[in-house]
Amino acid sequence: MLSTSEFDRTPSLPLALSRQQITYHLDSIWQGYFSDIPRLNTVDIAYSQPWKRRLGLIRLSLDSSKSFIGINALLQLQEVPDYVLYTTIAHELTHYAHGFGSPLPRIFEHPHANNIVQRELVRRGLGELARRCDDWIDKQWFSFYDMQREAGWVGITHTSRSAYHHK
Ligand SMILES: [Zn+2]
Prior knowledge:
This protein is of the alpha+beta class. It has one domain: Zincin-like (2-Layer Sandwich). The chain contains five helices and three strands, in the order ααβββααα. Strand 2 and strand 3 form a beta hairpin. It is globular, with a radius of gyration of 16 Å. The structure holds zinc ion.
């Protein structure tokens, strides 16, 4: 299982900065749980918008040379538990593995049919993490979201996706 010790490899960095090392977290989850999935193109990850009803997304560039994983900008805030960020990255990696937002062959018709993401996470040993994530989202997300919106999105940054042209 991933634990907070994953963050402890860079103890000299403030925790807020560690949350910003999102590329590191992507690589760490890929190596730890998706090492059988080939990285066939350039995969970039960045915090995107503070969406209300979306934690993340994955898109493939028109020429298939790049995949982009966008993570809800609010997930960089420490009030959101680590397992929510981890699960969200793993969720998007599952789509990549299934051929959605990636050059890999598409092995299902729809990215969320029949709980395929949940089943994949369980199969890869991430079921408990995903369960805790779902629980936190169910109980905390909307009040947390409203609070951040009322505060004027203090403390969040997001990366422009203008370099990407997606369908
Ligand atoms: Zn999804």
